[in-house]
Amino acid sequence: MARANTLLSQTVSDNEAVILDEWMQRLRQAGADQGGRINAAELQTQGRDFLSILKRTLGESSDVTGAAFEPLRELLADISRSRAIQGYSPRETALFVFSLKQALFAAVARRKDFSAEQLAQATWEASTMLDELGLHTMDVYQRSREEVIVRQQREIAELSTPVVKLWDGILALPLIGTLDSERTQVVMENLLQSIVDSGADFAIIDITGVPTVDTLTAQHLLKTIAAARLMGADCIISGIRPQIAQTMVHLGVELNVISKATLADAFALALKRLNKTVVTAKTPQAADSKAAG
């Protein structure tokens, strides 16, 4: 008696065009080609490639995890990664594989040359195979989404920790949001690199946008301050709100660094340390009046 995967391979070979049409119809009914992320022609090409590889693979093996199925797993991995990047939902991604079931089952059921036992074997083989391939698709999709999220978090962390040059020798690092270990590392790297590039003598770390300061956050700040000092730059903390000050006192947190209420106060102190003074420029009218007097 023929093996179930051989029966499936024969079924796909004899009915490939019909299976593809029914598969694509079910995908369109489920809205797989809507939203502008993929067009009907691209979806058709992906389905055609899948069936072509499946037909060839089924003639060699029934082990979805084996080497014969590697090209098919790679195709599904590429599709899953692209859908993860394009923002597809898990359901929309899994639908590509699982919607093939009905078309394949229907093709098997139409085989008049199969006995009842052969029909049952082929149907069961198709079901278990597509289930395994669907799970593989979801595994790759999940890993890809996690990679996208991690990359976006890094990019957001970098964008939310800009180092601004306020004056020659004075840098400002405005912090917004919660400080954790990973973000502290980004903050430290950005600040140290800016100190090296500009040769700054002072770095103002403004925490106006930090919602809370606990013991862990204070430790992260101390690490950043210590690293900046090793690079030859003195640090000034600004933006400590009354609530945060009370919390720090209650926790017994000692920053051991000069602090100012506002960024402007910290900037003025840094200018003073550099023997710089900001004065109000006289308007041309005032200067002319004084000269005329």
TrEMBL record:
It comes from Povalibacter uvarum. Residues 160-274 form the STAS domain. PROSITE patterns: STAS (PS50801). CDD domains: STAS_RsbR_RsbS_like. Signal peptide: none annotated. It comes from the Bacteria. Pfam families: RsbRD_N (PF14361), STAS (PF01740). PANTHER family: RSBT ANTAGONIST PROTEIN RSBS-RELATED, RSBT CO-ANTAGONIST PROTEIN RSBRC. This is RsbT co-antagonist protein RsbR. Keywords: Phosphoprotein.
